[in-house]
Amino acid sequence: MTYSGQVRVGGPADVHELKDLMITKVAVGPMDNNAYLLRCRATDEQLLIDAANDAHSLLGTVGDGGLASVVTTHRHGDHWQALAEVVAATGARTYAGRHDAEGIPVPTDVPVDDGDTIRVGQVELTARHLVGHTPGSIVLVYDDPHGHPHVFTGDCLFPGGVGNTHDDPKAFASLIHDVETKVFDVLPDETWVYPGHGKDTSIGAERPHLPEWRARGW
Question: d(Cα 16, Cα 2) in Å, to the nearest integer?
Fold first, then answer.
């Protein structure tokens, strides 16, 4: 079946099948968070992006294959409500942006800096540090050698705009700058965008709107 990226809380997962990587998207919790389970097809090693809520559902998605690691995109509570339970059940390593780790109540085993590589089996993800939604938000880029890139943006980029900066002009200026220079300036239009809430999008779909986002200030 063709991947759409449209999921709902309590509904089925959607699976994006790439040559080297399987990406399973599920929606969990009262804030309709997206969680993404990545599985290396060569090794079956698995990595979870944002143990946001509903540990039972997330562990069911993980299945019997085990979970090597969990990456938390940022410190906001709706993105780590199930982290403690998932880690306790699986023994997974925890990753988070260095400047957000102190705001996450589960210890971060591996603090992440801009440009760091996070592996799931034979697949490499590159972390980019974007400042503005939180001090230590990270996005993960998978540069698929067989196709276009894929980027997991947490709450830094959505269809229609960047993440909430709470009416703070300095935070917005920082986030829009980092999104432009570290995402739009280096990734092609075909790049698939997997956000922390809601529907997926692409860099090409959002790129024409950057000037209006800057003009409106959010």
Answer: 8
